[in-house]
Amino acid sequence: MQGVPADGSAGLERWLRTLDPAQAFQMLADIFPDAIVFAVDRDKNIVLWSRGAESLLGFRPDEVIGSHCLKANRCQNCLVGCGIEESGEVRDAPLTLFCKDGTSIRVRKTARAFYDSDHRMIGGVEVLVLDRAAAPAARSGQHRPGAVTFHGVTTRAPAMLEAFQICRNVAETDANALIQGESGTGKELMARALHAESARRNGPFLAVNCVSLTPALMDSELFGHVRGAFVGAATNRDGIVQQADGGTLFLDEIVELPLDLQEKLLRVLEERCVAPLGSGEPVSVDVRIVAATQRALSVEVTAGRFRADLLACLRVVPITLPALRERRGDVEVLLWRFIAACNASGGRCVDTISPTAMRVLLDHDWPGNVRELKNVVEYAFAVGRGPQLGVDELPPEFRHAAPLDERPLGRRPVLGPEEEAARIREALRQCNGHLGRAAERLGVSRPTLWRKRKKYGI
Q: How many secondary structure helices (H) and strands (E) does the chain include?
């Protein structure tokens, strides 16, 4: 047909006129969950950010849209110039990118620039896919075999992977959720993941630890107040619940809420309205509540400290995060992830861990969970030097757990009776009373351990 381009682009143009171009482009980018797809304008500010980009690099769209591409696309090549503006395209170029958490991934980049009639660049599109054939760029927990990262939470434990799937499922609804887990297991990160996966992702996300709320002002802080409600209330003030309107409110340690405020929160959940302090007029709110606690709320209900009807509303979807000691396979995964993050910050680069340090770290019970592990790595980077992380760079309680004959020469302390007795008790506890394993951990023979137990009355 005369006037119709041979490449059939006229049909594509007619079809595109029936669509929302921005929506179509975003949907096309999101089709590839294992690829980083983004677009930039003439100033190289990001105007499109795919879900795959968010998943692999850790940056949410609201963190990078409108910012220069170097904010999220961090690699050495990009810092000296990527060449797309000059050459117009890049084909299958190998790159190492640094993620938000400091870990690194190997990718292959294909990009194309767009120009105006004066051959000035007006934007570009980049597609980066994981380089499956390359060796790992860093010993990052995020990309160790079997490890999965979900909005900043990394695991290969089945119980944690199940929590990820529950989070994805509930995100597709508007149901409230209750996240249960010990301190340091990542309850706020999971709440943020739920928000990011949901249709509310462009709304506000507010996180509040109920322990930190001032008891006398808790009502006002959560639900707002009107002028004159109490001494010092000079103006009307929206509470935290109203500030989260259209988004998600994360209430950590919700068990700390007094019973009268639990009743007001129940009204928010059931009637979608809030009553500011000093006002008889309810205010409509549209907010998803994600609550969290490390205590058993059923026990608190029995004790009369928590409302049973509020618990029923909150635990529409319960999400349980296992303790780190219950997923010991994640210790090494997370250890290397945090090391990679510290490596990326500069100053020191660790590429190996001494066998003794690794043994002590893997055997630790981690009562502070993932938060404690992260703090231990940061401690080691602060006090140590060199490419190997040794046991002498760990906090004192870890050094005491290491066998004496495996500690660095010249650094073996002379233990006093109380400290030696404490070490024996700890070794027996960690070995569940097994004398042979405890003796091995302490670096002594079984007869020596038996004599010392008798000496200290253990």
A: 20, 16
Burial of 188 (0-12, 13-18, 19+ CB in 10 A): middle
* Cα–Cα distance, 203 to 244 (Å, whole number): 8
What is the C-alpha to C-alpha distance for residues 183 and 368, in angstroms, rounded to an integer?
6
State pTM to two decimals.
0.59
| 8 A C-beta contact, residue 101 and residue 341 | yes
CA distance 14 to 157: 49
Nearest residue to 17 (alpha-carbon basis) of 7, 5, 27, 9 = 9
Mean pLDDT of residues grouped by 10 in the chain (458 residues)? 52 76 80 84 88 83 83 56 65 78 75 84 88 49 60 88 92 92 93 93 92 80 74 75 92 90 89 80 89 90 92 89 91 90 82 85 90 94 88 83 45 61 81 73 71 82
10: which residues sit within 8 A by CB, 6+ positions away? Answer: 4
| CA 84, chain centre distance (Å) | 33
